[in-house]
Amino acid sequence: MTNPVLCAVDISNGQDDLKTIQTAARMAALDGAQLDVIAVVPDFGMSTVGSFFNKDHHDKMVTEAKRQLNELVSEALDPDQNAKVRHVVATGRAYEEVLKLAKKAKPSLIVVGASKVDFAEYLLGPNAARIVRHANCSVYVVR
């Protein structure tokens, strides 16, 4: 069985990651591989701001992230393709959670979108750059 293709998206970017998902789906289809799409929500409970949120805030955030991720993937792919995609929502720092899932799933490829380029992030966003530097497999960056 072929190793999966892992696609990392930021659901807070709205439709900016549609092209990233579509590219990842094409790459997975080339090998007949499983497509896993991951979105990461921040872990406010670990920081000093965590005390300002209700105890059930994290669960609500994860539920909403799952809904938004499914909506995003549904918009990017047709229903048959979406039905085969594994939707993953993790909590923590984006690059750490993507790399943690990659270590466990052993994908043949990670597909990430480049953040919008501005002066502070001239070539690559900080999460994408860290994934590129530390991944144990090839990383495809979609502009």
* Number of E-state strands: 5
Q: For the CA atoms, what is the radius of gyration?
A: 15 Å
| Individual helix count | 5
Low-confidence stretches: none
From the N-terminal CA to the C-terminal CA, the straight-line distance is 30 Å
Mean pLDDT: 89
Briefly say what this structure is:
This protein has helices spanning 18-31, 57-76, 79-84, 94-105, 126-134, and strands spanning 5-9, 35-41, 86-91, 109-113, 138-142.
Polypeptide structure, described:
This protein has 143 residues and is an alpha/beta fold. The chain has 5 helices and 5 strands, in the order βαβααβαβαβ. The protein has helices spanning 18-31, 57-76, 79-84, 94-105, 126-134, and strands at residues 5-9, 35-41, 86-91, 109-113, 138-142. It has a 5-stranded parallel sheet with strand order 3-2-1-4-5, sandwiched between helices. It is globular and about 45 Å long.
